[in-house]
Amino acid sequence: MKNWKVFAALFALSIGAFSKADTRPNILFLFTDDHATQAISAYGGPLSELAPTPNLDRIAEEGMLFRKCYVTNSICGPSRAVILTGKYSHLNGFKKNSDHFDGSQQTVSKLLQKAGYQTAVIGKWHLKTEPTGFDHYEVLKGQGHYYNPSFRTEGKWEKNHEKHIGYTTDVITDRSLDWLENRDPEKPFFLMSQHKAPHGRWEPALRHLEWLDDVEVPEPETLYDDYSGRGPAAAAHKMGIADHMGDPRLMLKYSSKHTPEQFKVFDGYFRPRNEAFLAQKLEGKAKTAWHYQRYIKNYLRCVKAVDENVGRILEYLDQNDLTKNTVLIYSSDQGFYLGEHGWFDKRWMYEESFRTPLLVRWPGKITPGTVNSQDIVSNLDYAETFLEIAEAPIPDDMQGRSLVPVFQGATPKDWRTSHYYHYYESEGHGVAVHYGVFDGRYKLIRFPEEHIDSWELYDLQTDPNEMESRYGDPALADQEQRLKGELAKLRKQFLVE
Ligand code: CA
């Protein structure tokens, strides 16, 4: 295949004299599921030294790291729908994971295809309906499995299962590289390479099972949060590391998707450790502490495989002279709780799940090693960003803004100073419906359902862990009124009501 590629490249060069080559940049969107910024060492959190992510850090070192990238709805499917449409959930129709994406609507993949890009999505899709707007797709069924995944392509499930024996994070990268290798080299590409990892239930690769075995991962300072500083919503959760993980998330039980050879190694690691844990009959804080160690280590092991595979992509781009003309974007569908507030999972408008990682490398356009700590950006902006990179028109009905000027250090003067959030899935993990506004310092959250009817207000400057709601505090009455006005303005602007 390499020879074919060289031939095609030479052919493209030879016709270059007669036709203008399409030199618009490629767009490579590397995407993960539930990857918290706390688990990327470039963000410099408490886990950085223990669990470094050198390849992700390389994107930051050669590009821009965003500290204030916030989602519009912190849950898997809805975030993907926002990215594809550039519209809030109530307009793209995908508010909850139980919804089905309407693939007949306008999407960024269709618009890029129309603009002459070669488009593909490989890996996790999670929108239930068939992908549209992609020249090629290979997508997992639903959440997918960590081992030996099945892929759907061209409207049917692939039968040749030997093709995808292996660890899913590796397999998705293999297939992404295959597609890159076999693409039409004359056209710019838009590839969404989307991992299942590090979504639960956290099954590490066999090669990472023993990594971190001999260390004690530091606990977050809010692991034993009792929610006493807030309204009734947080205490009603069902996503506690102490009580709600269940055996499969703790790898006290595991799936049967392994081959017998894989199972031997996997079970050989977990079984004796599980038996030792069960024999101890731990209770209370000691049990929670064990749950946390089990959870965080498996989560970080899943991240380690992601980082290694990001390294494979970076290497491929280097070796194929694609680094310079490819905009490389790394992000996740939302953030995640790594024990903060005693939780796993996402959904809340609190920082750990509201914030998502965003790393972007664009040689020649982005100054290497830039950290953007000031601009509030969002997954709502991705579609318009892709379109501007592709020099394609941006439809008026998209609701974000292109980040291209922000990449170049020329953030428009009228850039957003606040961001609207709306979560709809009240049945999920005991998290009530809520919406709110954040201005970079103050966060106002409204829980409108009758059973939990309440407001919360946080000052992130004095209370970065959001431990004490100041709603109703006379000292913040002015801020409260101002934010209520801002919330009403944004709801009107985004056509919520
Ligand atoms: Ca997710």
Question: Explain this structure to me?
Answer:
This protein has 497 residues and is an alpha/beta fold. It has a domain at 25-205 and 291-406: 3-Layer(aba) Sandwich (Alkaline Phosphatase, subunit A), CATH 3.40.720.10. Helices cover 31% and strands 14% of the residues. It contains 13 helices and 16 strands. The protein has helices at 2-16, 54-62, 76-85, 89-92, 108-114, 168-182, 246-249, 260-280, 284-319, 351-354, 382-389, 404-407, 477-493; strands at residues 26-32, 64-66, 69-70, 118-123, 136-140, 151-153, 156-157, 189-194, 326-332, 358-361, 370-372, 377-378, 419-423, 434-438, 442-447, 454-459. The protein has a ten-stranded mixed beta sheet, with helices on both faces. It has a four-stranded antiparallel beta sheet with strand order 13-14-15-16, covered by helices on one side. Helix 6 (168-182) packs parallel to helix 9 (284-319). The longest helix has 36 residues, at 284-319. It starts with a helix and ends with a helix. Calcium ion binds at residues 33-34, 76, 199, 333-334.
